[in-house]
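Thread title: Can someone regenerate the structure for this chain?

I was given the following input by a collaborator and told the matching structure tokens would be attached. They weren't. Posting the sequence so someone can regenerate them.
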Amino acid sequence: MKIYYVYILTNKNNTVLYIGITSDIVRRCIEHRTKKFKGFTSRYNVDRLIYYEEFRYVRMAIAREKQLKVITRQKKEILITSFNPTRKELFQNGMLIKPE
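Best answer:
Regenerated them for you:
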């Protein structure tokens, strides 16, 4: 069974938020870190995974991504803090980890 992820990345200063969707979060985090694709995340050095949600169905993941993209920055911050209070990097040593 495939799992889909909606995720939020930030930069080292936590000034930029990026919301994305993927079916392979490890590969995608590596692509962001290595700046494989030129664009928003490479331009603003957005490569720290601070939030993610898992979904069984791609349609649910897409709907959630769209929902998160339109909420205010303040609501995004509340969501991130409730999931990951210390904003710990959740992709370490090539592995996805759970927040404390």
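Residues 4-93 form a domain with the GIY-YIG endonuclease fold (CATH 3.40.1440.10).
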